[in-house]
Automatic annotation (TrEMBL):
This is DUF177 domain-containing protein. Residues 155-166 have a biased composition (Basic and acidic residues). InterPro entries: YceD. Residues 146-166 are annotated as: Disordered. Pfam families: YceD.
């Protein structure tokens, strides 16, 4: 059994979603290779950083990701295997890439409770959650605000005008 610590750049962009690991991003690999009867049992962890945009508010994000992997690389035999020992070497690229790509979030968010974009203005709500009043109304219903009964009928004149237009 042998152990290795590697740092290698991602050879390509890994992932096709909102976030991905850019080509050249360092990938840290802690590797354990065990000789077994059928071949080499390869296991370990791989860590890197993915980047992209929040799926709700489109803010740029970058987050660490770490995955575990394990695969038996078989000695070449009569049947072709996906993972084989070739020339006494094992090629980890597909193994590590697939493990990382599968772990990338499908709906990445900049923070767990990201409120996304304001449906009315398109502005990010992240920065000013506290300032935004609760009374924010769906714009499709905004016209109905004019029909709200006014307890004090002191100045209803504006409401009357608005009602007439709509
Ligand atoms: Zn966000």
């Amino acid at each position: 059994m042998r152990e290795f610590e590697l740092e290698v750049p991602a050879p390509d962009k890994w992932g096709e979603g909102l976030v991905s690991v850019p080509g050249g991003e360092p990938v840290d690999i802690d590797l354990r290779v065990e000789s077994v009867h059928e071949g080499m049992l390869v296991s370990g962890t791989a860590g890197t950083t993915y980047s992209g945009v929040c799926g709700r508010c489109l803010t740029d994000i970058a987050q660490p990701v770490e995955v575990e992997f394990q695969e038996l690389f078989a000695y070449p035999g009569e049947e072709a295997e996906d993972f084989e020992v070739r020339d006494d070497r094992v090629d980890l690229e597909i193994l590590v890439r697939d493990a990382i790509v599968l772990s990338l979030p499908f709906q990445p968010v900049c923070q767990p409770d990201c409120p996304g974009l304001d449906p009315a203005t398109g502005e990010r709500l992240t920065e000013n959650i506290t300032e935004r009043p609760q009374e924010s109304v769906d714009p499709r219903w905004a016209a109905l605000q004019n029909f709200t009964p006014e307890p004090d009928a002191g100045a209803p004149r504006r409401d009357v005008e608005n009602t007439g237009k709509s």
